[in-house]
């Protein structure tokens, strides 16, 4: 406590020299660093000789800097006649320690990687600032990091704008992790069918790299792990880097058939044995503490050398690996440049690392599929060679002409069949997931949890119905809106057995790009009506879908009891519908609950996002 008071007294002496940032409610975001002063404390002992220096950068990166603290001083002035409340965001979730000082209120708040507050719902640490009319206050932040790179980025937000930005950011990250898990699940199913161990190592690599990335972007310490667990994770942070590299090595060993390259394979086996032993020693003692990262880097470099060498030897699968790693290297390089303060790529494209990771994983998945095609072609070539040896030269020439003609027709038929089979398998996979959800929910006694499973099942059904329609059509640019919606809603009527009359009016087809979003929207709104709108098993739901002058209008209306907007405005279903309308359709949504519930959605065809 005495040290804190001493700190406050020392810092308070420099308030008169602070730069002042005038704020109001009209500007949504301020870059606080531009109006801040910086002090680098290498001794970590406050003295009276503190000299803050003016800063002219929006972003400060110090690289890996475990041996000093960075002090940031900034002064805010409320020039308005109103009390202002702002959200101050420290733009780095991986900083180990962040201490916020409010001298006037004698307040000290601690945040950071290991000190995530229970009531925090943002990825990055935030502090609430409240200023009275015409008040001027000086604040201090001390930042340090002994686990990852030290990055300083301070922005002051209007509260509503901050949470809108935060919601969009978290939605994009969850879409990224969702895509990673979809690829993992899809290839896990293929592993069961093909019995190819390469798919298993691929799935484990995807899962481990996804877990590592949840730690990097701050999702893990916000939603997955508590502070105590995070302290153990920080202690064994190297494991979360080493494990993905280990699974990557096993994937390459199996996928590239390194058993055909005796010397390369033996060296890799030796490295893996030493690698496993070193990890075990590291977990149970500190003997390998100084060498753990060296071994990980050495293994990764050896894998890169293998991939480049096999690509040089014209190994087709190695091409995919090298291209995927090159894309990932660009993403990691951009991350390093940002963390070192050389260039701030977050402003240009904040999700470049996620795009690089996803691109690498997709290329690996394509490489696995291409491997099957190559094996199939090699089998066909072997059959052709056997036929060639059995026939005479004249018969071979004659048969070859006939066979080429036949193969062209078969190839055309196969492509058509494969396209249909692809769509059919996607539908079957969705149906399998729906069936698994249904089986799982049957064993759950909790009604609320069963409702959640049923909602998830209905959402997947909406996408499955679209895939079924595409499977049956030759032209997939548009789908029949009436056929799609009625098929979708018939499934909902079977789920919620109520005497509800549903009336349709559809005078337009639906763009395929709009179909998934519209299907989920209709599923959510009609499900809400069937579940909550009617106190008795009687009622009517009207669904209208029209298009005029490039403007689509979708109306879903029931004559039920309605609801209180204020009471359920945070419903996940309504948030999902609003998010789909605004971000995917680029449209607007209006909900009227005076007489029943009437939801009107309008969007333009040219506003569809890619």
Describe the structure.
The protein has 610 residues and is of the alpha+beta class. The chain has four domains: 2-159, Immunoglobulin-like (Sandwich); 196-374, no CATH class; 391-476; 477-610, Heat Shock Protein 90 (2-Layer Sandwich). Helices cover 56% and strands 18% of the residues. The chain contains 16 helices and 20 strands. The strands form five sheets. Strands 1, 3, 4, 6, 8, 9 and 11 form a seven-stranded mixed beta sheet that branches. The protein has a five-stranded mixed beta sheet with strand order 15-17-18-20-19, covered by helices on one side. α3 (197-217) runs antiparallel to α6 (237-255) and α12 (393-442) runs antiparallel to α13 (447-472). It is flat. The two termini are 56 Å apart. Mean pLDDT is 80; it is low at 12-17.
Helix content: 55-70%
Strand content is: 15-25%
Give the number of domains: 4
How many β-strand runs?
Answer: 20
Total DSSP helices = 16
Reported for the largest beta sheet, the result is: 7 strands, mixed
Span between termini: 56 Å
> Mind telling me the C-alpha Rg?
30 Å
The pLDDT mean sits at 80
Envelope shape: flat
Which structural class should the secondary elements be placed in?
Answer: alpha+beta
The parts where pLDDT drops under 50 for at least 5 residues are 12-17
């Amino acid at each position: 406590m005495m040290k804190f008071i001493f700190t406050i007294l020392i810092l308070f002496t420099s308030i008169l020299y602070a730069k002042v940032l005038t704020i109001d409610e009209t500007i949504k975001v301020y870059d606080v660093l531009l109006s801040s002063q910086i002090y680098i404390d290498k001794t970590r002992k406050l003295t009276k000789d503190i000299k803050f220096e003016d800063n002219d950068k929006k972003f400060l990166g110090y690289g890996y800097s475990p041996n000093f603290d960075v002090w940031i001083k900034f002064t805010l002035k409320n020039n308005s006649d109103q009390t202002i409340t702002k959200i101050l965001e420290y733009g780095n979730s991986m900083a180990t320690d962040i201490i916020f000082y409010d001298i006037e209120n004698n307040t000290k708040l601690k945040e950071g990687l290991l000190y995530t507050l229970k009531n925090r719902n943002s990825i990055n640490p935030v502090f609430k600032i409240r200023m009275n009319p015409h008040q001027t206050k000086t604040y201090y932040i001390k930042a340090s990091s002994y686990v990852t790179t030290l990055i300083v980025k301070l922005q002051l937000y209007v509260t509503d704008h901050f949470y809108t930005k935060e919601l969009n950011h978290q939605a994009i990250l969850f879409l990224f992790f969702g895509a990673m898990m979809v690829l993992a699940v899809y290839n896990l199913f293929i592993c069961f069918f093909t019995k190819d161990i390469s798919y298993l190592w691929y799935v484990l690599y995807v899962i481990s790299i996804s877990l590592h990335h949840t730690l990097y972007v701050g999702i893990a310490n916000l939603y997955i792990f508590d502070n105590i667990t995070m302290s153990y994770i920080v202690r064994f942070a190297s494991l979360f880097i080493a494990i993905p590299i280990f699974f990557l090595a096993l994937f390459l060993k199996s996928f590239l058939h390194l058993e055909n390259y005796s010397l390369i394979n033996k060296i890799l086996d030796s490295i893996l044995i030493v690698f496993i032993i070193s990890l075990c020693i590291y977990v149970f003692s500190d003997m390998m503490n100084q060498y753990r990262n060296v071994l990980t880097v050495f293994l990764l470099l050896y894998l890169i050398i293998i991939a480049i060498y096999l690509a040089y030897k014209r190994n087709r699968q190695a091409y995919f690996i090298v291209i995927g790693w090159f894309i990932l290297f660009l993403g990691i390089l951009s991350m390093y440049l940002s963390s070192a303060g050389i260039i701030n790529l977050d402003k240009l494209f904040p999700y470049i690392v996620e795009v690089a990771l996803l691109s690498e994983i997709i290329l690996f998945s394509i490489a696995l599929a291409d491997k099957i095609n190559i094996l199939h072609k090699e089998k066909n070539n072997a059959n052709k060679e056997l036929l060639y040896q059995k026939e005479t030269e004249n018969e071979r020439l004659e048969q070859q002409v006939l066979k080429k003609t036949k193969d062209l027709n078969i190839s055309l038929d196969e492509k058509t069949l494969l396209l249909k089979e692809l769509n059919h398998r996607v539908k079957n996979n969705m149906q399998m997931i729906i069936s698994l959800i249904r089986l799982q929910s049957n064993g759950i006694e909790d009604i609320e949890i069963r409702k959640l499973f049923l909602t998830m099942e209905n959402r997947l059904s909406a996408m499955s119905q679209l895939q079924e329609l595409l499977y049956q059509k030759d032209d997939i640019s548009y789908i029949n809106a009436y056929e799609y919606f009625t098929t979708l809603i018939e499934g909902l009527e079977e789920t919620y057995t109520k005497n509800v009359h549903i009336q349709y009016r559809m005078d337009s087809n639906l763009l395929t790009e709009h179909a998934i979003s519209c299907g989920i929207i209709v599923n959510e709104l009609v499900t809400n009506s069937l579940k909550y709108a009617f106190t008795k098993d009687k009622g009517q739901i009207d669904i209208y879908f029209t298009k005029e002058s490039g403007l689509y209008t979708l109306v879903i209306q029931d004559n039920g009891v309605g609801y209180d907007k204020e009471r359920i405005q945070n419903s996940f279903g309504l948030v999902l519908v609003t998010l789909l309308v605004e971000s995917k359709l680029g449209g607007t949504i209006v909900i009227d609950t005076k007489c029943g519930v009437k939801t009107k959605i309008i969007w333009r065809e040219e506003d569809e996002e890619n």
